[in-house]
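Q: Second attempt. The first request was missing the SMILES, so the protein and S-adenosylmethionine are both included now.
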Amino acid sequence: MLIKFGILDRRLKVEKVNTGLLPAMLDGRPELVLFPLSRPLSVIELERIRGVAGLLHFCFYSFVVIEKMAGFIDLLKGALPENLHKFIPRSFDVIGDIAILELSPEIWDFRGVIGEAVLRANRHVKVVFAKGGRVDGIYRVRRLVHVAGEERTITLHRENGCVFMVDVAGTYFSPRLSGERIKVANQVKPGEVVVDLFAGVGPFAILIAKKKRGIVHAIDINPFAIQLLKENIKLNKVSGSVHPYLGDCREVVKSHLRRIADHVIMNFPSLAYEFIDVACSALKESGGIIHYYQFGRGEAACNSVVELLTERLKNSGVTSISILNVRRVRSTAPREWQVAVDALIVP
Ligand SMILES: C[S@@+](CC[C@H](N)C(=O)[O-])C[C@H]1O[C@@H](n2cnc3c(N)ncnc32)[C@H](O)[C@@H]1O
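A: Got both inputs this time. The predicted holo structure:
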């Protein structure tokens, strides 16, 4: 509301302080938040703010001045012709200290300037790449074009209290799935067995082992992914509970992991439907939950994914299907979503 009224002084830092510092306002509250104001409030503004703020005090305070970092977009506005401003990306993915931008063809020739602006506006970013195509192939990786900063593709990414070594060029990794990983991990009980059919560098597997004390068998066909998964098992100290397998999950399940799982994770949205029989064969005789992903289009995205999954499950001969949750995980293209389904199955 202070921002809406144009009263918050954004050159100064909002602070949370222990009330011990401000004895006159103790009021029994352990902490206060101090907002720097650029002018006094009018009576009307004061009334409106009181309505949402509850306890309100005014005082003099020496605020810290924020070191003003010119925003990425402001930096670029001076460097690009005005007719191209609308093509400046409004957001980008950051994996560890590597930023990955999606640039439209209209501003491709300015990629160097744009990359430098990202570096200047985001101190923790050390490397900038532009996407050079779609995520493709069996390893689900994309071509990246280096545009600024250090020339490397490996980084350490922190997420949900875990740390992951990622090679952004040689392995799949999306920071946009961090919330989804928590949703799946929260369904696993301590000691349950999980088979992750398409594990990548291990973001689901390691979170489940570390935070939920699950036992995870993590498979991937990409040797770079398995090499980094092994590093990540060490980095997160979960070597007793995450077991890596390099190979085609169909073969690995057949030879090592039949009828052992309480949960099967199938995060390979473009092709997971081809592996529904594999997931069923990994589940315990008494049944378990599959966490299934697929791309869906339009308003009926969730329904069409559930329909296809149910049909395939019936064709695989499962005796009981119960859909527990269906959700849109993220938008992947205009009117297209990655959809997740948690389904309780008795094979
Ligand atoms: C979309 S990525 C997901 C990776 C990981 N679950 C994550 O969230 O970062 C799909 C992964 O499946 C792997 N993959 C593709 N086909 C496979 C197969 N037949 N068996 C095992 N892994 C496979 C790819 O190498 C890739 O790492």
